[in-house]
C-alpha cells in the first residue's frame, strides 16, 4: 500500500529577491532596482524571480523601440509592392507593450479594476436624485 504523506496547505515563506541577475545590463538593470522598490514584499520573492527578470528585459526592449521610433519612421513603404507596413521597431514596441501589461498584472504593478477604490459609495437619495436642480 502506498504511503500517504501530509502536504502543508498554508503559505510557506520564500526568500526575498535581492540582487539582480548578472545578465541584466543598462535599462533592464535600472528597471530591476525600480521594481524592487515598489513591489509588495509578498510578491518580491524568489518565486517571482523569472517574472521580474522577464519584465525587466521586456522593458529594456520596449524603451529601445521607443527611442528608435523617435528618429525612424513608424511606417515603411515596401519598395517592391508599394504597400505600407509597420517598421520592425513598431512591431517590437507593440509586442513588448502586451508583454509588459501581462507581466505587470501578474506582479501587481497594474491595477485590474478591483483594486481601485470607488470614488463615491453613497447611493443617491432616490433614483431621480441629482437630475433636477
Mean pLDDT: 82
Helical content (DSSP H or I, runs of 4+):
40-55%
> How far apart, in Å, are the first and last alpha carbons?
79 Å
The structure class reads: mainly alpha
Strand content: under 5%
Count, helices: 3
**Unreliable residue stretches:** none
Q: Give the H and E element order.
A: HHEEH
Report on this model:
The protein is extended. The longest helix is centred in the middle third of the chain and has 23 residues, at 49-71. Helix 1 (26-38) packs across helix 2 (49-71) and helix 2 runs antiparallel to helix 3. Helices cover 42% and strands 5% of the residues. The chain has helices at residues 26-38, 49-71, 88-107; strands spanning 75-77, 84-86. It has a two-stranded antiparallel sheet. The mean pLDDT is 82. Strand 1 (75-77) and strand 2 form a beta hairpin. It has a domain at 26-107. The protein is mainly α and 133 residues long. The protein has three helices and two strands; from the N terminus they run H-H-E-E-H.
List the defining traits of the structure above.
single chain, 133 residues, mainly alpha, 42% helix
Quick summary:
This protein has 133 residues and is mainly alpha-helical. It has helices at 26-38, 49-71, 88-107; strands spanning 75-77, 84-86. It has three helices and two strands.
Amino acid at each position: 500500500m502506498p504511503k500517504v504523506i501530509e502536504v502543508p496547505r498554508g503559505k510557506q515563506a520564500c526568500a526575498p529577491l535581492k540582487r539582480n541577475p548578472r545578465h541584466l545590463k543598462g535599462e533592464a538593470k535600472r528597471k530591476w532596482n525600480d521594481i524592487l522598490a515598489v513591489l509588495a514584499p509578498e510578491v518580491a520573492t524568489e518565486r517571482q524571480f523569472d517574472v521580474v527578470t522577464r519584465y525587466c528585459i521586456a522593458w529594456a526592449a520596449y524603451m529601445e523601440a521607443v527611442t528608435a521610433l523617435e528618429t525612424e519612421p513608424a511606417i515603411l513603404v515596401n519598395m517592391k509592392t508599394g504597400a505600407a507596413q509597420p517598421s520592425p521597431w513598431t512591431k517590437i514596441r507593440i509586442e513588448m507593450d502586451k508583454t509588459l501589461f501581462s507581466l505587470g498584472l501578474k506582479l501587481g504593478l497594474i491595477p485590474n479594476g478591483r483594486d481601485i477604490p470607488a470614488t463615491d459609495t453613497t447611493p443617491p437619495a432616490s433614483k431621480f436624485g441629482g437630475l433636477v436642480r
